[in-house]
Structures are given as C-alpha cells and as structure tokens.
C-alpha cells in the first residue's frame, strides 16, 4: 500500500471537513486534493494545496482586481496569447504543492529542476521503509546506440529475469545490512546519517514539492515528453492529469504550444522555407549537423 491506514484516515478526515473561503477555488483541483495517484510499484503523487486558477492568470496579466473579463472566451484567448508569446509572470501567480513518493534515483533527476521549494523525508532522523522500485520486465532495456542517455531494445526474457533477481537480491541485502548497522541490540549501532549510505538508489523517498505554474509547465514539457526516462515520465503524466483539471484553459494552451508544438532553429526555418519553395534540401546543403538534420526531419516528415 502506498499509504498507511493512518494516512488514509487523515485524508478521509481532511476531505470530509471543507471550509468556507474567499480565495479563488478551482472545482477541478478540489476533486484532486489529498487523494494519492499511484505511480510505479510503491510511489504516488497527491495534491496538498493550490493557489489560483485560470482567472488568476488573466487577473495578473491585466493587473485587475476582479475575476477577469466577463467572457470566458476572452480569458482563454488571453491565456493562449500569453503562452504563445512566452509570457511567464502571469503563470507564476498560480502555485501547486504536491506530496510525492518516488525512488531516490528519480528524485535526483527531478531535483535538477531548480525552481521549486522542496522538503524531503530525512533519513538522518527517520528510518527508511523497506520499499524498492523493481521495474517490470517490459521496462528493462539495453543502452540505446543512438542516445547516450536513453534506452534501446527491450531485454530478452532470460536476461531480464536475471537482472530482476539481482535488483531484488541486492536491494534486500543492502537493507538487511542497513537494519543491522542501526540496531542498538547488543551494540552501539551506527548513526542513521551514516548507515543510509549503504542503501540502493531504488529505495523510495518522499517529499513536499511546491512550484509555480510557469515552472511546473517547464518541468512537464521536459518530463512528460516521450523522450524522457519512463520512471520520471509516469510521475509527470500523473501531474498533467491534475493540472488539466486545475487550470483547464492554461493546460489546453500548454498542450497546444508546448507539448504539441515544436521549436525550429534559424537554419531549420530557412530549410523549411526552401522546401516549401520546391527546392530539394539535403543534410549537406542544410548547414546542419547530422543529428540536427535527423531531428529536423522528424518534425517535417
């Protein structure tokens, strides 16, 4: 279970005691509050709090004191304009706070987005649970031959079974030694802050992560992309479902201009113009490197 019975009871209590407020309220976000969305084998994402809604973005853009214009269509048009022209400040007026349970190696990749407030579970003060991320056999793949950061072909059945056995055995052996080191039964016991160094990178940690909508969209643009590592992409996908309900107009603009859009270099724009004019353009005449040309052709073909 991702949450303990005590945590489930706390969530039920929080959702059963709504309070009146004068704050902007998003009905879509309210439906997600506190509820954990399962991710991977033991992980989850849950919305703890939010600030603002679509109208707050428009309010900030116009520096007005009301709910924006009376026309929802006008508000959505403004949001699309802001997204299309890369305006950031109005989106920064909305914030989201998440509780995330994730493997340590995913957390280390995630934390490279240095634009949020983070408070992580401390293994100096507390004992980590015996919970490890063990991939499904279909998610085990060889190193990509084209991309040093990515995966290639899925491993064969025999090799994947061997790898999964090693992952389980190594993780549990390391945790056995971790428990033995911190035990004070008949020994002094190693300090938790030292014993944790023996734990594998697939053990689960937890944190609270608070971010504004502009930087959240940047995170999602990179991590919800098909080229992102699977283990972080599934977290991004779960967050996308929340954001879609929280700020639907802003999310539609994000899908249109970021997730579904592309960016071309000056050379790419020039090559596209030449192609539209009927000229045959090759990598040799494009002024691009081989990799740039392959990426460009993935867009235009």
UniProtKB/TrEMBL annotation:
**Does NADP count among this protein's keywords?**
yes
Q: Which InterPro entries match?
A: Thymidylate_synthase_ThyX (IPR003669), Thymidylate_synthase_ThyX_sf (IPR036098)
Q: Which GO terms describe its biological process?
A: dTMP biosynthetic process; dTTP biosynthetic process; methylation
Q: What is its EC number?
A: 2.1.1.148
Annotated active site: 223
Q: What pathway annotation does it carry?
A: Pyrimidine metabolism; dTTP biosynthesis
* UniProt-annotated binding residues for dUMP: 109-112, 120-124, 196, 223
Which PANTHER family does the record match to this protein?
FLAVIN-DEPENDENT THYMIDYLATE SYNTHASE
Q: Which family does it belong to?
A: Belongs to the thymidylate synthase ThyX family.
| Protein name listed in UniProt | Flavin-dependent thymidylate synthase
Can you name the source organism? Limimaricola hongkongensis DSM 17492
- List the lineage, top down: Bacteria, Pseudomonadati, Pseudomonadota, Alphaproteobacteria, Rhodobacterales
Annotated gene: thyX
